[in-house]
């Protein structure tokens, strides 16, 4: 991944996606905003208890760094499901936004925005059809197939073929830190098959850890996606740069991820 410093903001970009001049994307960190602890500083989550004025300022900074304005953003109310929103410029904006865990668009200049603090950001770009998609996959979404549902919707609406799509699996809680209980391990084994690729014993030998990166890569490959870049950055190991719901015991903010097709390239 590339680490980009823009004014005071720091964001990451996938190496494969930066090769396409048609798109802009940023996986933002917590750096460069105005929120106080425990939301310090670039929190863009409006439901975590942070001052709404700070959240708005942070969101404006983030969007500006992507050369975008609020009216040209589209987001969802993330609910750990598999519904996918098709974003169109002509649609009026409602608040709260529609419940969905993926957004896709072929409209240039529209920024897709989602919020994260351990769940997995999945970014998709189809250079053949000029379509982008953004998906939020926590353990539930991963096991339900939120990523493949996004790919399927890109095919259904825009005719995208999985083999043309470039995918990125962003910073999220890693297999080093994501200890889960028996309920989750049994559901993971049911959804993914019994394999120590996805559910493993951590180095301390206690409990079981779920590998959301390997699981998402696996389900995307099963869906026919061939080009996948994995960030490999654990949010819980890196709370100096990212928010981690697990590592910060729920008292934390959300970092933003933005993806758009550029107006002029
Ligand atoms: Zn970790």
Structure description:
This protein is an alpha+beta fold and 265 residues long. The chain has one domain: CNF1/YfiH-like putative cysteine hydrolases. The protein is built from six helices and 15 strands. A hairpin with a 2-residue loop joins β1 and β2. It starts with a strand and ends with a strand. The model has no long low-confidence stretch (mean pLDDT 95). Bound molecules: zinc ion. Zinc ion (ZN) binds at residues 174, 176-177, 234, 236-237.
Could you name the key traits of this structure?
265 residues, alpha+beta, CNF1/YfiH-like putative cysteine hydrolases, six-stranded mixed sheet, 6 helices, 15 strands, binds zinc ion
Average pLDDT value?
A: 95
What percent of residues are in strands? 25-35%
Ends distance: 22 Å
Going by CATH, the architecture would be 4-Layer Sandwich
| Structural class computed from helices and strand pairing | alpha+beta
CATH class: Alpha Beta
- Count of helices? 6
Note the quaternary state here. Answer: single chain
CATH topology: CNF1/YfiH-like putative cysteine hydrolases
Say which molecules are bound, naming each kind only once. Answer: zinc ion
- Overall, the morphology is globular
Q: Pick out the low-confidence regions.
A: none
